[in-house]
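Entries read sequence, tokenised fold; example below:

***
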Amino acid sequence: MIVAWFVGVNGVTSGCGVVGLLHSGIVPDRASIERSMDSESEPTQAFAAVNEAARVRALVEERRTAFPLGVAKLLLSAALVAASATALAGRPGARNFAMQAVALYALFSIVEFALSGRIRASWIPEVAAAAQQLAVGSPSPIPIGDASLWWWFERVRFGIVDLGTMGAALLALAAPRTKAFFAAMALDAATIRQQDDE
């Protein structure tokens, strides 16, 4: 549940970033970013700036898809954060709420991945080209200039981060020990209420 909480916090940050970016409409220009990087700049710093610019432009180009997905991610991630926090605190009824939030987030992740294909198709070739350009003169054992590597990286990220963590959270919530924990917490809460009534 701690990992699910972190995924939720990251989703809130990401959703806020997308919504704020598309609301402002400011699109960074790759050429100006490359010009602003002096020859002393770290290649990783230059690549990170170009990568961010490519992602932003892809989101702006596909704003009709990206904006509703960003809003949905923000709301569902906030629900996931709240559900994870209440489950970790052992609140009565938190287990059912957490299971629903986790399942809904996993379902949304599938929908988001399916609908954001054009966004990935826009930024991946540009990022791969930038990586290839920056890798000139510094041979790397990993072919970071290969676009297919970036496609696979996105698929693996989706499988592990979006689906894997939610699957693990659901298994943890469905475990007998978790059920026993929440039953004990509910019993404690009932006992405290009964004592207060007396």
Observations:
- DSSP finds eight helices and no strands in the chain.
- The mean pLDDT is 82.
- Residues 69 and 112 are 7 Å apart (CA to CA).
